[in-house]
Amino acid sequence: MRINLPNQITIGRLVLAIVFFTLLTWYDHTSPNTRLLDGCLVIFVIAALTDILDGYLARRQNQVTSLGRVLDPFVDKVLVCGAFVLFAGPAFADPETRVAVTGVAPWMVVLIIGRELLVSSLRGFTESQGQAYAASKSGKAKMIVQSITVPVLLLMVAHPQLLGEAASERVKLISVWITVVVTVASMSSYLLRSKHILREATRDGGS
Predict the structure, then answer these.
(1) Which of 68, 94, 171, 203 has its CA 20 to 30 A from that of 31?
(2) Could you report the per-residue pLDDT of 53-92, keeping only the tens digit for each?
(3) Which residues are CB-contacts of 171 (< 8 A; sequence separation ≥ 6)?
(4) What is the pTM of this model?
């Protein structure tokens, strides 16, 4: 099977994600490596831009495929969720407080991943009922916000002096909480969209 250009770009994004995770796991906040974080930032931004490119090419060249519809959101989720998992991990923990210097708490990671699992389950169930389940505006907004938050956190951790330590902490806090709020709003939006289908399924199951 020949893989078209948009799907090749998507696969390339998955490779970039693997490189990104590999480099990020080498980071240790007890001996900060600014160049390492700068490299991760560049890789993530390139990977995020390829998400725009492959979607644009698929629509422009009429090359939307079943593989692309599955692979593209999967790679997006791997890239973003993986970044937040590492941000809440021991590599970014302050050696004194043991709190992540990124501002990302473990429960936030659970929320972000839980949202993705829930929406994927709802999409699978809805489409199994013969109904389309396209991405909503809130879902796209969530992806945009998360894709901005990741490089912002990398930049603020690597260069706290850029804005001053106090301002950098505020930027991290605001970015993380905007991500949390948008993630919850997106999850609520998908639940509302699926309400009637879930109600019908419950009714059919009980009859």
Answers:
(1) 171
(2) 887 787 887 877 777 777 888 899 999 999 999 999 999 9
(3) 152, 156, 163
(4) 0.87
